[in-house]
Design goal:
By secondary structure, the protein is α+β, with helices and mostly antiparallel strands. Helix content is 25%, strand content 29%. Helix 1 runs parallel beside helix 8. The longest helix has 25 residues.
Length: 511
């Protein structure tokens, strides 16, 4: 009973820890001999990602990270608007800025203490076959190696072409012509630590954008949009990079900690399941980083895959449950691609109509607050809602109204992630991650699985006589009432629960 996790970036690390937490032995394979701790890379980690890491024992990541509270947006030399982030009342911040290197360091510490995780570094995957199991062929400094596992999770990143080819998968989509220069600097910038600054067409980068993110330790991440063919080495040699930075921060001392040039993509695998192998993170989908939907969606992939693989390996579900991984997470990837593509169309318009629209919106936003809502610099990562999943039973009394406004969450209901709330038995999401959970209202009892009584109303909006069936990733699978006759509410999962009221009427949630 083993799962091979191919790739040890944050998504692979999270997947390995989640599987081990559920009692599944893991072989964690990575082509690198050691970590490269340089560079911020993925920095913005959303609340629900922090929630997963906290459950795994990495709650310090939320404490170490920096949360900016004000988003300032500029057009040319004029500030358009400034937004304050609301307090959602959660114990966790809405997101933190923290370097990917620090995240990997903390997760590596947890992995080192986990006896169920066998780390194989310096193993470059050369092939994957499935002769009734998963066989991973690797090249190492000592020669070829062969790893056999029951299932595998491919977290090999954007450059996991060998893994994708072996599985018959590719990343279809588009790449954007413009490049983005990223610099991490250390500088004393009073008042900037609590602000994210986005500049459209500023005097110091005319015709393009600049984004400035604060990070812990007086560090700042600056992203410039630059033209195709941009030469970083030439800028460094001729002093132009220094001029770029000083045009933003002024005549202050600073230190460049890391710099790199990226081209952004929108690319998706057509399927995220290939037999016994599931694809996750950048190995399955690439999106532009505005809105921080890359690493965050990869962690959501890992959690979705981990509980399903564990259920199948423990004999609690048939292998058909794994198909729901593709259904749910591919739909999430499609939505992320749509959101980030709309952002890139605004940031880097490719047609004359898009250019006219962008200029019109930015010009009107200088004096019209209503136009500010149309300025698209990225919609921050949020959970995907599995309302159309085969594992979700719709409730006509709680219809899903579609994607809520930016920064808002849909009301709880089938297919929606539980709110981050605490009851007398503990944090609801932590309780759910221990296995299927039934939340009952007073006067309703549950047999066959764990249950917790919750008050009527409150954060869930539960009503008298209801029982809420919650999946191990804290998503609501169904809302039941005493007397409901609904079988197989979670297809492929055996013996989930049976809801019973005090006087003996029954509603079968699963057989």
């Amino acid at each position: 009973m083993t799962v091979a996790v191919l790739g040890s970036g944050p998504v692979g690390q999270t997947a390995a820890l989640l599987l081990a937490r559920r009692g599944v032995p893991v072989v964690l394979v990575d082509r690198h001999d050691r970590r490269d701790p340089v560079g911020s890379k993925a920095i913005c980690h959303q609340r629900d990602t922090l929630d997963v890491w906290a459950w795994l024992g990495a709650g310090r990541l939320a404490e170490e990270g920096l949360t900016w509270t004000t988003a300032r947006t500029f057009h040319r030399d004029r500030e358009l608007f400034s937004l304050k982030l609301p307090d959602a009342g959660s114990a966790l911040p809405p997101f933190v800025n923290l370097s990917q290197a620090r995240v990997e360091e903390v997760l590596d510490e947890l992995i080192a203490r986990e006896p169920l995780i066998d780390v194989r570094r310096g193993h470059r995957v050369t092939g994957v076959t499935q002769p009734g199991c998963v066989v991973v062929e690797c090249a190492t400094a000592e020669g070829p190696r062969r790893i056999e596992a029951d299932y595998a999770l491919a977290c090999a990143g954007a450059r996991g072409d060998t893994v994708r080819r072996a599985l018959g998968r590719s990343l279809g989509g588009v790449s954007f012509r413009d490049l983005f220069l990223i610099c991490d600097i250390r500088a004393d910038l009073p008042g900037w630590a609590a602000e994210r600054r986005f500049h459209f067409d500023p005097p110091f980068n005319p015709g393009r954008q600049v984004l400035i993110h604060p990070c812990p330790g007086s560090r700042f991440r600056i992203d410039w949009q630059v033209p195709d063919g941009y030469d970083l080495a030439a800028e460094e040699t001729g002093g132009a990079l220094d001029h770029r930075i000083r045009a933003i921060i002024g005549d202050r001392p600073y230190e460049v900690l890391w710099r790199s040039v990226y081209r952004f993509h929108t690319r998706l695998a057509d399927r995220m399941r290939a037999g016994r192998v599931l694809l996750a993170g950048d190995c399955a989908h690439l999106v532009a980083p505005f809105g921080a939907r890359g690493l965050n969606s990869g962690v959501a992939d890992a959690e979705n895959a981990a509980w399903k693989l564990a259920a199948v390996l423990r004999g609690e579900a048939g292998e058909e449950l794994l198909e729901s991984y593709h259904v749910e997470r591919h739909a999430a990837a499609v939505e992320n691609a749509a959101v980030t593509t709309a952002t890139m169309d605004f940031l880097v318009p490719r047609t004359e109509a898009q250019r006219r629209h962008r200029l019109d919106v930015l010009t009107r936003a200088e004096d019209d607050p209503a136009a500010c809502a149309q300025v698209d610099s990225g919609r921050l990562a949020e959970p995907f809602w599995y309302v159309d999943s085969p594992l979700t039973t719709p409730d006509p009394r709680r219809p899903f109204a579609g994607r809520p406004p930016r920064g808002a969450l849909p009301p709880p209901g089938p297919g929606v992630l539980l709110p981050d709330v605490t009851v007398t038995a503990g944090r609801l999401r932590d309780l759910a991650r221990q296995g299927f959970l039934v939340l009952t209202t007073p006067g309703v009892r549950a047999e066959g699985t764990r249950s917790v009584e919750i008050p009527v109303g409150g954060a869930l909006g539960a009503r008298p006589g209801e029982a809420w069936l919650v999946r191990p990733d804290a998503y609501v699978a169904a809302v039941l009432r005493v007397g409901d006759q609904r079988a197989h509410l979670v297809p492929g999962v055996r013996g989930v629960t049976r809801i019973v009221d005090d006087v003996g009427d029954r509603a079968h949630a699963a057989e």
